[in-house]
Amino acid sequence: xxxxxxxxxxxxxxxxxxxxxxxxxxxxxxxxxxxxxxxxxxxxxxxxxxxxxxxxxxxxxxxxxxxxxxxxxxxxxxxxxxxxxxxxxxxxxxxxxxxxxxxxxxxxxxxxxxxxxxxxxxxxxxxxxxxxxxxxxxxxxxxxxxxxxxxxxxxxxxxxxxxxxxxxxxxxxxxxxxxxxxxxxxxxxxxxxxxxxxxxxxxxxxxxxxxxxxxxxxxxxxxxxxxxxxxxxxxxxx
Length: 238
What we know:
By secondary structure, this protein is α/β, with parallel strands linked by helices. The chain is built from eight helices and four strands, in the order H-H-H-E-H-E-H-H-E-E-H-H. The protein has a four-stranded mixed sheet, sandwiched between helices. The chain is rod-shaped, with a radius of gyration of 45 Å. The termini are far apart. The N terminus is likely disordered.
């Protein structure tokens, strides 16, 4: 396997850079690309490898639309904050036009300079970045994208709060059901008592009317006895 995972033609250029103690800060785009081209590499490929040396392995060549679904796919398909996505036609312009290269490299560097601010702002809101990057679209416009989620500790607090609220709601619901059931039972008992009182009152009214037709001989105390029984019944059911 060749150095840095590139093809054999590019490996020689990387070995050259390593032998001359060339680091990212010292890399001169023109010199580096010239060395790669001496190995037979095309200018576009050489420039692409120069960008990877400068910005990292997250540099890729893709034509990405500006619609939200396209940006979402890029966010879901990348990880970390070192992602640089360049449209193929723009990459070719950058490789062949130093002014275009300087312009877009400035845009890329601006993105990297902005990452700490993005991280701080999201962290203050309880979020963390899972994936972010810069996209240079085929029409030359630039988009910064960020994909992230709540910090684990923030998510845990929110979930704990939601669980406590759900338990409190369930508790209130049980209490309401218990009170409703108790009230229903009390109403049932009251209705039963009322029904019994009405039934007894009707029974006594009918029998009192019937008994008034009779002449009591030897037992004049019967009406008093029934009156006492009625009073006792009413005391028991009240």
